[in-house]
């Protein structure tokens, strides 16, 4: 034991250069950083020491002739160096702090030379794990984006760009590019696939995001196999490997894998043992697969982010990487990109906002760069003239006596270029784009001389490629979506080889000699942080363009690929459906069509093709565009438009294809109120969007429930998850009452994720009293699969005000020149939970008015309950307007008058929970007069409240309310104005009559089952057959059927 402790102590303190087992290795070089250790844009090179790559000495051997990729890193070829180690440039290193292997997640033990690290992507590994590495380096990862397995019937996919969030700070996460912790550094996060990247690493991200809408009418679903989409690192807490059942999550490094669809987690060395086919995991019955969804215009395309993504959208530019930021020039638009002025202005505005963030992100880093370092030399490296014009650079730190070759190596590593350094050189920056005007850095110059010669502390250099007199080269041509026996072929091109000839040669190498070359086109793809696609003319010659592209940007040239595309197999065009809302209500369908047409014609925008469903009671319409570019242009016109001084609400709606769904599937429609529970909905929205298809998740702040209900209107069966408070549940149920009767499934079952303050309905249905940050939402979705269906009685509350009170109210309004009259008074409500008169409604009204005055303060449940407590203390000991309430009202239940004792408030309950979990009705086994309070028995419970003290006693469980009556039809006469509330919505009601009667509409709710939920990543969840229904689900259905039979009245 003492020997082990001594070894650990020496391990943490070692700082020497040693040789181990007769193998010479290079010691880790002291990094000449600025004072901040968190800078991720600084790369170092070693001082003059011996270096022997592992395990072969020919790691820098080139496969000459392959244009743009001088080293052939194709994993299918038999090379012993980088091909064997997935493109990593590994060298042995002394680690002076606890370090963990990125392959097996075990700690690197030893005194010296404990493991190996990649010079480019910082991948760390044991020596014993060298032959098992399967994680590609960032220098070759882009070449492996296209999924293609010739031996299996799996359709290849094109690269998919990420949908980036706003720049922010993410703790306990790792960058998927440089594999370092994010912590305090500015970073971006993909909203769909949990891909993280520093702002300085965005140019090197791999465009392999999940494709959430991939419907193809020509696809044979019986032969199609849906594959896993693996993402490395940043796993959820308590993740276990589905193969070896051991923990695979680590907070020390970027390691282990997770499927973005089924949420299967596994070690990096274990996940290759799984079948490539994905069954969408334990919640597959709730998830809509991407091949069943079509979304011609994704919302991310028109959302206006700094990195908006999608086909046909104006690509926004990622901000430059240095602290001195200037907007980039406008990029060349393809045929699919609409040139709208609104889009360009939107992108410039978003870019300027990011520019202000970036300029103040790390002042200590800027200071460190300006001051330099005593032992090292800072250099600013540019990638061609394109980055010079954008002032987009990478800063590297080298030893002052570093040779020109070592500086070139450092610059290549900063740009993630893995190639022979002899093929590159450095030159001083120049405003002139002519390469002949630049001064090339001599081979005998060292880094320390550059600062003196240029007269600056941080010299600016451009990395260039050694131009030769070669008039030909090789390019890679990918098969696109065609199924051929190879991943790609190499085609020799010259200055005179046209696109037509390249197509002919590529078809010959693919074994498709019988195909007509005129039926194919060549597509140029630039796979950066965004994906730019351009169909090339048949007379074009790519060679001169590639030479020019290499001079402008080495990185962009290396990220360019070519692929074939059939011209005769075009996918059917699906119309883009746009939801247009917030228009005046109760107009004619022709009027809505005229309003939208008029707004588009004013801006000279292309018109829609047709008008679909019109929801007059909500002032909304669905319009369709056959031309996707016209849809995007119309979106940017309407999103800034107003009608009658109200902004127009816009949202593109996905189309769900029923024939692509499994027969036993019951997709889940998710509504999230992002403002509920102190804005907890924002966190829930992000998490749930990754657990299911993002096109199933709708933000209620963008058009309300109507867009989601319209998207699911043709499904024969589906379920709804409402994330919000009791008011949000009532909102969705009301909208479902209005438009659900026109849907195929008019009464879907509803589950609740409580985000509000009271959450009484969710408590009754066993979903809990409130979501807490860090709760396991995946288990929550599994509980929905196994939940049981129950019925919820709903009641209509009708208010009939006395005519004398209406005349008096009108006179007061006229005398005060008020625009609000009796038409604003509510006269009918649908009650789901409870209705109250008196002291309870008075407290609720005070809370409502306080929240309306300062809504920013009501951002937590604890604060909200504190406000209730203070309002109650103010009422204590004072004579309120609700004193002796029994004298001011008269009550009849089922036609019989009831005697009311001395009370200050009265509750009419439909459920057994009130005020955040209290039970005013209570459970009294000795009382045979009344039945137990149920939400499906067709009865209401009347409870009396004696005052504020009584309210507190009920809340604390010391007492229950005064049981007054139980019935199905209640009529109340109010002799004076009184505060009332219906499901948490309070107001002052004028004297009159109140009628509470049974509603014809009964809601179907989901009640959480008491059965134990299966643990994630267990064998039954992973290996269960898709076509079989689990016994647990059959049992849940049987319980629901019995509950329905017993609950009918």
From TrEMBL:
Domain DAGKc, residue spans: 663-801
InterPro entries registered for this protein in UniProt: ATP-NAD_kinase_N, C1-like_sf, DAG/PE-bd, DGK, DGKtheta_RBD, Diacylglycerol_kin_accessory, Diacylglycerol_kinase_cat_dom, NAD/diacylglycerol_kinase_sf
A Pfam family recorded for this sequence: RA
This enzyme's EC code(s): 2.7.1.107
Matches recorded under CDD domains: C1_DGKtheta_typeV_rpt1, C1_DGKtheta_typeV_rpt2, C1_DGKtheta_typeV_rpt3, RA1_DAGK-theta, RA2_DAGK-theta
Keywords: ATP-binding, Kinase, Membrane, Metal-binding, Nucleotide-binding, Repeat, Transferase, Zinc, Zinc-finger
Official protein name in the record: Diacylglycerol kinase
Lineage: Eukaryota, Metazoa, Echinodermata, Eleutherozoa, Asterozoa
Gene encoding the protein: LOC110987650
